[in-house]
Amino acid sequence: MREARFIKQNTEKWQAIEQEPTTDPDRLTERFIELTDDLAYARTFYPNARITQYLNELAGRQHRGLMQTKRSDLNRFVQFWQYELPLLFRQTHPLLAVATAIFLLAGVLGWVSAAHDDTFVRLILGDGYVNMTLENIKKGNPLGVYGESDQGTMFFQITLNNIMVAFRTFIFGLLASFGTVAMLFYNGVMLGAFQEFFHERGLLIDSILKIWIHGTLEISAIIIAGSAGLTVGNSLLFPGTYDRLTSFRRGMKQGLKIAVGLVPIFIMAGFLESFVTRLTLPPVVSIGIIGLSAAFIGWYFVLYPIILNRRLQP
Fold this sequence. Notes:
Blueprint: H1 3-19, H2 25-45, H3 50-91, H4 93-116, H5 120-125, H6 127-138, H7 151-171, H8 178-199, H9 204-237, H10 244-261, H11 263-276, H12 283-312
């Protein structure tokens, strides 16, 4: 193909690239590939022509734009975890306190109910689980359930289940917060009954040192997911100065960000439950893991948002 025809055939495309810049990564990539193809052709057939130099410069500009967009995406990812999510947590601290109170109250009720009614634990946890645990207690391994499954399969199933519980707790906020309250209450009652079941058999400390290795992150994340659900529910119940639809959209966006932000926590909790909880660890190691988990939750979800918010105040 003659140089003049090559230029005429592609001039409109090159002008569009110059005159209509974009920050869309997919579009930038597509344009860069087209330009490098044109540049390769020009270098082959018109190595010393001005059009080859022009295409080389244009491709270079597209490449720089593509790299800047990638860096921007990385910065956006870092900013979400470093600033955006913690500041959002700060806004929801009152609702986090409400979610925590509901869960703790339910836990106490579950404990008391299990202590005064032998059938209550079976009602909440199911006959199958209770019978299996009683059999494990007879064998001298009361928490042997954690070592019965393949680690990889267990990790996948537990992590997926925990994430689904968190998202259900969040989504049920659409029921004017009552669905979220019900989820928090049910999980709190279940935990209280579960711990009383072991306390009644003199195994409370053993269960705490075993279960809370993963439970510290898992239970904390469920409560935080509850604050996300309450955020959605309150946006419907109390729109404030916004119209109800605008308030609902804001609440859904904020709640969804919180729910998504909990996914790494559930992944870590699933890892601990699948690979660490099953181990027979010295009490000091178990206490260390529980303490570090609690410290992380307290720092990232409570203290750091407060400090960051104060730092950014004018």
